[in-house]
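Example (one chain per record):
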Amino acid sequence: MAVETIEEAKSVITKWLNENGHQVRLVEDTNANFHFEIDYPLSSMKRQRVIQPKEYPGLIVLLNGVAIADEHKKKLKELNEDDREKFYASIRKDLIFAENSYDIGNDEDGIAQQVQFSYEFYLDSLNKTNLFKGLLMNHRVLMYFVTVFNDKFGIPEMPENKAPNPAH
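Predicted structure:
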């Protein structure tokens, strides 16, 4: 089934996400024809976005991100500039052929604050396999960043999640 319109894309993406059991929430976004927030991996607290930006007709963007832990930011700041750049360069080298894109948001001192991941494709390649491949690629890069930072700087203390568990 070839998807030719934005409305068809919205409908079929919603159908596929629901078929696979994802929680799908429509996000109000004046810059998008549609914008969903979903749980990915399935039934996890992690979230990804599925967006069709108005500015780019026919483009679908899968978006994910992670904030750098305060403890990791502190340790990055303690590195000298050359060592910090070597760390960032090793990440760039590891991900140069990744199918998705990433953007490290640094502060004015060059300390990573957050990382955003995206996987983009156009309606002419929209199918269930490509949608879920993009979600998986974003999740893998998220796990890569978590692992690389934890390996370099240790596992940070995580704040307790006070949100009620919807399964109970």
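Caption: The longest helix spans residues 128-153.
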